[in-house]
Fold these 2 entries.
Entry 1:
Amino acid sequence: MKKISIYLFFAAIWVVASLVVTVFPAILTPVATALRVPLNETIAVFLTLMLVLTIIFLALIGREAGRSVAEHLL
Amino acid sequence: MVDREELLTASRREIYDSIPKIVVGVVIAFLIWLFGVLIFQPLARMLGDPLIFGLVGLGSLISAIILIAIVLIFIGIFKEVIDVTNAIAAYAAAVYSRKETSEEKLDRYQRAFRGIAYVLLAVILFLFLLPFIAGIIPVLAGIVLVILVIWAILVLFRSGRLFSGEIERWAADATRKIEAQREEMEREEEREE
C-alpha cells in the first residue's frame, strides 16, 4: 500500500508538470535555450516524456494493486 | 476421455488463477485510457491549436503512444484470456457430461468458446482504442470498425456451427417432449368424450 501511494504521488507529479507546462509554456524557455532547440519542440518532447512516465507509473500501480489483491485472496 | 471431476477442478483452479490477472490488466488499461482521454489529449489539442502554440502533430503523437501502451497491456492479458476461455469451455463440457468427457467434445467446446472470447476481447480493445485511433487518423476508426464487424460475424458463425450438434439434440429432445405432451392431452380429451 505504501508503494502504491509513492507511485501515485509520482504519477500526480508528472500530470501536474504537464498541466503547468501547457498553461505556462514559457517556463521551458531556459531549457530550450540550453539545448539550442525551438521552444515548441522542447514542449512536445517534455509532454511526451511526462506521458510515458505517467503510463509507466500507472502500470506499476496496477502491478502493486494486483499483487496485494493476490495476497489478499491467498 | 477425460475424467469429469478432474476437469472441473482443473478448470476452477485455472479460472481462479487467471481472472485476477485479467482484471488488473483491464484496470491498468482503463487508468491509462482515462489519463489519456481526460488529461493528455486535451493538453496536446490545446498546444496543437495554431493560434496558441501550433504543435499540430503532437495530438497524433500522444494518441499513438497511448495506443501502443494499451495494445501492449492487452497483448499481456491475451494469454490469460485464452486460459480462462479454455477453462470455461472445459467446465461447460464437463457439466454436460456424465462421468467422462470425450477429447473431441472438449476440443470443439474450446474452439467455440475461444471464438466468442476473441470477439469480446477485440470489441473491448476497439472501445479502448477508439479515441486514440480517431486521434491519429479519424477515417481509420471507421475502417477498423467495418473490418471488426465482418470478422466478428465470421468468427461467431463458426462458433455457432461448432455448437450445432448440441443445439440439434436439444431441439430434438424439446420436440419429443412437446409431442409426448400433445399425445397425452389428446388421450385425455378422448377419455373425457
Entry 2:
Amino acid sequence: MSQSAGKLIDENGIRTDGRKVDELRPMKLSVGVLSNADGSAYLEQGKNKILAAVYGPREVHPRHLALPDRALLRCRYHMAPFSVEERKSPAPSRRELELSKVIREALEPTIFLEQYPRTSIDLFVEVLQAHGGTRCAGITVASLALADAGIPMRDLVVACASGKVGGKIVLDLNDIEDKEGEADVPVAFMPNLNAITLLQMDGLLTIEEFEKALDIAIEGCRRTYALQKETLKAMYVAIKEGVEEE
Amino acid sequence: MSSIMVSRIRQRQIAQLIASGKRLDGRGLTDYREIKVEPGIIEKAEGSAMAYIGRTKVLAGVKIETGEPFSDRPNEGALTVNSEFVPLASPEFEAGPPGEESIELARVVDRGIRESKAIELEKLCIVPGKKVFVVFVDVYVLNHDGNLIDAAALASLAALLNTKMFNYEVQDDEVKILPGFTQLPVVNYPIALTFAEINGKLILDPGLDEEEVMDARFTVTFEKSGKVCAMQKSGRGAFTKERILEATKIGQQKAEEIRRMVI
C-alpha cells in the first residue's frame, strides 16, 4: 500500500465518499432471495453487491470427504468477471482461494457441525460488484444465509474492516481507501460470544494503532449485528402476517 | 489435516499438559524451538536459504527475471511468492496444484515482505512502465513438523538477504548484462511469529502434533521498528480480543530476539 498525499481525508475529517472516520457505509440486507437454495441472502453496502447461498446439510460429494463426527463445511468466495473495473478471469485466483479459506474458518466456529455428521454444508459467496471490503461483507451476508437455511448456530457472525487512512484510524474502508491507505484490518466477530473468528492485517501499524483499529472494527461489527437481527426478525414477521391473512 | 499423525490419546495428553502450563517436548508455553538458518544453499539461484525450526525444514530460492511492471506500479519491480508443499515433506502432502494451506502460507509470507517494504522495489525498475525486475521467491517445504509459516518467512528473508543481482546497463530499452554482481536492496527484516490456542492457553511456535490439537492459529509479522506489518488468523476456532493483544505483545519482543539471531 502506498502512502497517499492525505487527500483521502480532508481537513474537516471527511472521507472521499463523504463519511466520517467512524461511519459505516449504508447497508441493505435481505434474506430468502433464491428459491432453490436452502438458505440465501443478499447484501448491498455502498457499491458492494453480494449474494450468498447455502445448500445442506446434504450428502457429501465426493463421498470420501465425509467426516465421521461432524458436517463438512465448504465455502467458495468468488468474484464475477464484471464485478471490478478490469474484467476478472472467472477462474479462481489465489486471492479468492485464500478468502474462501478464511471465510470458512470465520463461520465454522458458530455452526453446530457436530449435529450433522457425514453431511456437507456448502456455502457460496458470489460477489456481483466489488467496492472494497467484500470478504467482510461476504461473511456478514453468508451468516444470514446460514440462518435462513435453519442451520443451528451459536451466534451470528458479523464482519467489518478498519484500517489506517491518511494517518487516521478509520472504519469500513472503501475500494480507494483499501488500495491507497496505510493499513487494512478485516475482522469477523461473534458479538454474543465476544469471539474474533477472522483477523487479518496488512500495512503498517504500531501495536497501539492496531488495538484502536481492532476496537473500532468490533464496534462496527456490533452496529451491523443489529441490522442483521432486524433483517431476520422482519422476515419472520412477514411470514407470520402472511399466514394470518390467509 | 486428519488425525492419522497423532493418536487421540496423544492429542488428549498434549491438551492436558498445556492446560497445566507444560508442553510435550519440555518447552515453556512461549518458548520457540531451536532456529537455524543456512544461506547460500543453491548456487544456481540468485539467492537461497534453508531455515530450520526444530525438525521443520524449509528451503527458499530466489530467481530474478525481467518482466512487465504492474499497471498501478509502473516504476517498481515486482515480487511474487509461491510455495510448494513437496510430497516428500510429509505423508499428508500430495503432488498436484497448490492447496489452500500452501496458497495461504505464500500469501502471508508475501504480505510480510511487501508491507514492510523489505525490498526497495523502486530500485528494480529498468524502463519505467515497460520493463522491471521481477523477484520470484519460491518456498519449498522439505520436512513438515509444524509452524511452516514462520519457517517459510525466515527462509525467504534469509534468501533475499543472500540474493545477488547481475550488473546491467540499458541499451535501447534492452538489458545488457555486465560482469559482476550487486546485492539485492533489502532494507527491512520482517519476522513472522505464529501462536496457537490449545485448551484455552496460548502457545508460541506450535509443533505438528500441537497443530493437530489446536483450536485456532494466529500469525503476526513485525518489521524492524517493531510495527505490525501482517496478521492472519486461521483454523476452526476463535480468539478473544485480549488474547490477540497478548499474542501481539509477546510477539513483538520475540520477533526482535529472532531478528538478532538471524541477521
